[in-house]
Each structure stands twice: as C-alpha cells, then as structure tokens.
What we know:
- The complex is a heterodimer of chains A (137) and B (74).
- Chain A is of the alpha+beta class.
- Chain A has one domain (3-128): Molybdopterin biosynthesis MoaE subunit (Aldehyde Oxidoreductase, domain 3), CATH 3.90.1170.40.
- Chain A is built from three helices and ten strands, in the order E-H-E-E-E-E-H-E-E-E-H-E-E.
- Chain A has helices at 13-20, 53-71, 101-118, and strands at 3-7, 27-34, 38-39, 42-43, 46-51, 75-81, 83-86, 90-98, 121-126, 131-133.
- In chain A, the strands form three sheets. Chain A has a four-stranded mixed β-sheet, with helices on both faces.
- The longest helix of chain A is centred in the middle third of the chain and has 19 residues, at 53-71.
- Chain A is elongated, with a radius of gyration of 15 Å.
- Chain B is of the alpha+beta class.
- Chain B has a single domain, classed as Beta-grasp domain (Ubiquitin-like (UB roll), Roll), CATH 3.10.20.
- Helices cover 20% and strands 30% of the residues of chain B.
- Chain B has two helices and five strands; from the N terminus they run βαβαβββ.
- Chain B has a five-stranded mixed β-sheet.
- In chain B, 35% of the residues are buried.
- The model of chain B has no long low-confidence stretch (mean pLDDT 97).
Amino acid sequence: MDKVLITRRPLSIEAAQRAVTRPDCGGICVFAGAVRDRNEGRRVSKIRYSAFESMALRQFRSIAAEARKKFGVRAVYIAHRVGLLKLGEASVVCAAASPHRAEAFAGCRHLIERVKKLAPIWKEEFHGRGKTWVNRA
Amino acid sequence: MKVKVRLFGFLAEEAGRREIAVDAETAGGALEAAKSVVAIPRSVRIAVNEEYAASKRTLRPGDVVSLIPPVAGG
C-alpha cells in the first residue's frame, strides 16, 4: 500500500523506510529534501511551507500510481511537511521499494520530481529583513 | 452562475482572504473574474474540484475553482 501525508510534525526517514518495507522488495530508496541556507544567492534563515492539503494528497496518490505503473515499484511513501521549518530540517521525504535497486532509484526520483512539479505546495523564504514567495512570477 | 474560488499562497495573502465568489461559466472565466479582487500573473494555474483543469473547462453548479500559484514544494 502507498502511504501519503502532509504534516506539521518533523518527518522521519525511518518511518518512510518502514512504510515501504515488504518481503518481496530488496531495493528501498529513500530521498529527503531539507531546508538549505541559501537560495539564488540570498541567505535563508527559515522557510514556511503551506499546502492545499486535500489536493496535494490527491496528487501524491496519483504520482504514486504513476511510479508503480512506469517503474514497477511496489510500495510508495510520500510525506511533506508544512509550517515553519528551520535550516536542515526535512521538508519532504519520498521512498520507493521494488524487488531490485534500479527500479527503486528510478521510482524514487520520479516521486520527488513530480511532487516538485505538481503538488500545490508553496514556500515563503525568510531572510534578513523580509520574506519572499518562492517561484512567484 | 455563482462559483466559489479558493485562493492560495501569495494570492490569498494579497487578496486578504482565502475565498471569493464570482460569476463565471468556465474555469478561465472564474480566473478572469477573480482579477477584480487580486492581480493574477499568467503563471497561475486553475484547478476545478481539486484537479488541474484547462481554462475552457465548463463549470457545473457546485464546482469549486482553485487558483494555484506556481508551486514550490520539495
């Protein structure tokens, strides 16, 4: 089964690993994205994430289904954090499990790329004096 | 037809609210109508009932339109 969630609480890589562990899968790939201290040449002190949660969860489920279909992964985990995050904290954790490693790597890569592209989630970066909405065009 | 339009990210911040009601027949029409409340850049996408939708999508009674600013998850 796939597990998808959006939470205000710290994310856990172990929880991701546990969620996708199954006896027929020898390859488990876990990716974590963390808050970085700079973006586009500017120092970042913290980030606030917000989401259209019900739609984001729908997107997560459909991304999980894509990864199963395209790469044959057998279990998927996608978790995204919302709220105020400090530097170094994980904002997203994705995991994919499959019988062998190649599909697990490819599937996990697919998860994070599609989450970044599709999930209705936004971030405000805080720096010295103010804040900016990332990707605001 | 009266339609509920939900705003997110900087759109909600700049409009000072998360939801407005507009008169529209299509998803794109709802976006256009929302411009009376907040400036909407071309990069904003439209969702109808929590799925991305084309602007020409015809709205039905009870549909909820959401305006999705460029996403930045991950």
